[in-house]
Amino acid sequence: MKILLTGATGFIGSRLCEALAGHGHLLVALSRDPVSAQKNIPQLTKAYLWAEPEKTLPPAAALDGVDAVIHLAGESVSGRWTQAKKRAIRESRILGTRHLVQQISNVKNRPKVMISASAIGYYGDRGNEALNVKSGSQSDFLAQVCQEWEREASRAKESGLRVAHVRIGVVLGPNGGALSAMLLPFKLGLGGPMGSGKQWWSWIHRDDLVGLIQFALENQLEGAINATSPNPLPQREFAKILSRVMRRPAFMPAPAFAIKLLLGEFSSELLTSKRVSPERALQAGFKFQYPELESAVREILVNN
């Protein structure tokens, strides 16, 4: 297939490009910096300039004749959520997706499928409740963003596309993602649970996320798909496993008030609980390479 990607240079997109090219697909991208994109992602045959996704449509030439679109682009949610940061998080996803879908409707030779990123933030803080794709959403900031994000992507169905929303959990991989941010305190012997440690973390190895996106693309999946391991864990257990693999202590809890003071509203993404099941992926036949956290962390830390 000829596949157009947004977010191709990111932590997930760069690995996805390697995998897709390895399967023989032809890859093009939309990028704010196409020269840098083509330099850093050698699997791309062409990168098209899309400098302001929040304000403009992407070039029609990038979409005409493409078989599939994989839409990953969006402002990182990491960092303190100032009003400007929240606006960037929201507009990059909602307006960027709106403009992408609008241009898809304008081209003559349209894609047949769109795989669009979403996030398990859709579910909000749910305590110990087991969540699947039929579980409802909440009204907090990120949940509302995810609802609108998926709504904009769904409009591509009006142009005849099959649309899948990949609700991504805490992604673990080398040189980026959630794990990289957690390693330094553990290396210094200062690791431990965050807040109460009772909150559920629904995580996924980056290679499994990449595999699931490919699986959704090639196996006619549509609608919402949870991209999380079959084995979510309370954050306290997550910290214990990381401590064991790194052979470092994990007795230094980070109090919730300190995390809130440091990170503001973004702290909710670390302290709230989402116990998410990937049952749709499993029922469709997807096989996880790293269903257990310890094997996932060992692969990342030992092999990279």
Overview of this protein structure:
The chain contains 12 helices and 13 strands. The chain is α/β, with parallel strands linked by helices and 304 residues long. It has a domain of 211 residues: 3-Layer(aba) Sandwich (Rossmann fold). A 7-stranded parallel beta sheet has the order 3-2-1-4-5-7-11, with helices on both faces. Strands 6-13 form a two-stranded parallel ribbon. Strands 8-10 form a two-stranded parallel sheet. Helix 1 packs across helix 7 and helix 8 packs parallel to helix 12. It is globular, with a radius of gyration of 19 Å. The two termini are 30 Å apart. The mean pLDDT is 92.
Q: Please give the order of strands in the largest beta sheet.
A: 3-2-1-4-5-7-11
- Shape verdict: globular
Number of helices: 12
Largest sheet: 7 strands, parallel
Uncertain runs? none
β-sheet strand percentage: 15-25%
Give the CATH H-level superfamily of one domain.
Answer: NAD(P)-binding Rossmann-like Domain
Helix content: 40-55%
CATH architecture of one domain: 3-Layer(aba) Sandwich
| Rounded radius of gyration (Å) | 19 Å
Arithmetic mean pLDDT: 92
By DSSP, the count of extended strands is 13
The name of the CATH topology of one domain is Rossmann fold
Report the CATH C-level class of one domain.
Alpha Beta
* Content-based structural category: alpha/beta
Q: Secondary-structure element sequence?
A: EHEHEHEHEEHEEHEEHEEHHHEHH
